[in-house]
Amino acid sequence: MPDDSVFLALAHPVRRRLLQLLAGGPRTAGDLAEQFDLSRPAVAEHLSVLRRAELVRDVPVGRQRRYHLTAEPLAEVEDWLHPFEHLWRARLRSLADVAEEDT
């Protein structure tokens, strides 16, 4: 089971968005901060939470740090969620059936 820090990190929408951005490849903190209406220190704190949860790692490159997505904890979340998948798959199928009836 994934560590609670992973779930706590994933609970915040800014941190989920940071992970989405990093899924496209490594980025600097400054580049990531430009994607939000937040101060750089606020984005740095979110990155720190993600780093402590081991969802990202940072690599020094000159005077900057590049942040990289670390997929292993996300795979653990997926493994943990798998037994519950049937619950939302059935609901999505029902929703799709209703949507198709209306067309």
From TrEMBL:
<dbReference type="InterPro" id="IPR001845">
    <property type="entry name" value="HTH_ArsR_DNA-bd_dom"/>
</dbReference>
<dbReference type="InterPro" id="IPR036390">
    <property type="entry name" value="WH_DNA-bd_sf"/>
</dbReference>
<dbReference type="GO" id="GO:0003700">
    <property type="term" value="F:DNA-binding transcription factor activity"/>
</dbReference>
<dbReference type="InterPro" id="IPR011991">
    <property type="entry name" value="ArsR-like_HTH"/>
</dbReference>
<dbReference type="GO" id="GO:0003677">
    <property type="term" value="F:DNA binding"/>
</dbReference>
<keyword id="KW-0238">DNA-binding</keyword>
<dbReference type="Pfam" id="PF12840">
    <property type="entry name" value="HTH_20"/>
</dbReference>
<feature type="domain" description="HTH arsR-type">
    <location>
        <begin position="1"/>
        <end position="89"/>
    </location>
</feature>
<protein>
    <submittedName>
        <fullName>DNA-binding transcriptional regulator, ArsR family</fullName>
    </submittedName>
</protein>
<dbReference type="InterPro" id="IPR036388">
    <property type="entry name" value="WH-like_DNA-bd_sf"/>
</dbReference>
